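re: ur question from earlier - yeah i can do the single chain one, its not a big deal. heres the input i used so u can compare w yours
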Amino acid sequence: MKKKTFRFWAVLMLGVVCSFLFTTNASAQVVVESDTIDCGPTLYADSVSAVFKLQNNYRTPVRISKVDASCGCTTVDYPIIQIKSKKPFEITLRYDAMQLGHYAKWVDIYIEDEAEPIRLTMIGVIKSPRQSFQGRKRFAKNYDKL
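and the output i got, formated as tokens:
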């Protein structure tokens, strides 16, 4: 009886240890310092950029296999060569501010041999530049005589 319970606990502990090793190895090993950056207010027709700091914690070098941006007005600069083990790297997101109001632009970064992408987001607000109306007349015609 004691031999069977020992085997049961030994197999159970072996399963727990193996699952712990596989889950920590299979979890995301590219660590992001901050996945959302608030760029604050920006003037219309200016370019906004956000720099994301990441680090490769894999034991082997990794490569970014695919990048999907949320729209065509967002561009991404990322390392196209292999990223060495335990080395930090940067990804830059740029947005051409051609629409007034709040924005949230994101990009999905796919690392080879990983199923889930890393989503990086930049948020902010686009404001119009102030214009001085001093010395100008509002209307060119006299509308009182119509």
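The radius of gyration is 27 Å. not sure if urs matches, ping me
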